Amino acid sequence: MKPPSSKNRQPWKYIVVQGDAKEEMLRGFRQGIEREENECALLPQSKRYIAAAKHTVDLMEAAPTIVLVVNSIGKNEMGEMTPEEHVYEICNIQSIGASIQNMLLAATEKGIGSLWICDAYYEDGCFYIITYAASNKMKQIDHNPIVAVAGEWFTAHGKGINLGWFCKKENHEMAQKLRQAFSEWIDNGHNNFDDENTIILCIQLTEGTLFSHGTRYDIDFSDN
C-alpha cells in the first residue's frame, strides 16, 4: 500500500546501510557529536541531548542493517524559506511520517509487531515509557494489552500495563529512575507532570529477538 503524499510529491527516499558503509557512516556521526561538544557546535543550544545522541549511535552500531528515511526534496533548515516553502516542508515531513507508518503496518501484517516510541528505560524484563493516558496508543493498549516493541537492534512482545500518574506515590521510585535516565530532555517542556494523564507505561516482556553484530538471539523472558 503506497502512502499518501502532498500533491503526490513522494518526497521520501530510503537508504539501506550495512557493513563497511555503516561503519563509515557511524564514524561521521561520532565526528559530528564531537563537534557539537566543542566550541564550533552547529546546534549550541542542544548540548543537553548529546548523551542521548551517543546512546543512539551505540544502538545503531549493534544493528546489522540501518534504514535511513530522508526528505529528498527538503530545504536547508538553516537557510531562509518563503512562507510557501515552509508550508511545503511541513507537508513533505507529514508525508514521510505516513510512509514510515506504512512500513510499521506492513511489519504488523507479517506478524512483526511494532510500537512507535521514543526513549524507553529497561529494567528486569520490562520497558518503562513516559506517555499520555488519553493518546490513541494508550486507548488501544487499554482495549488490547498485548503489544510489541521494536528498536534498531531488537523486537519483542509483551503486555502493556498503565502504572498511572507519573507523580503518584506508588510510582516515586520508578519516576526517579526515569528522571535520571532521561535527564537530558525530561524537563524540556514536553511533559506536563501536573497533568494526571502523564503516566508511566510498563511493557512486561514475554519474548523477543536481539541482533548483535550479525548474530540473532531469541529470548524467553518468562524463563527467569
From TrEMBL:
Residues 3-124 form the Nitroreductase domain. GO terms for molecular function: oxidoreductase activity. SUPFAM superfamilies: FMN-binding split barrel (SSF50475), FMN-dependent nitroreductase-like (SSF55469). It comes from the Bacteria. This is Nitroreductase family protein. It comes from Extibacter muris.
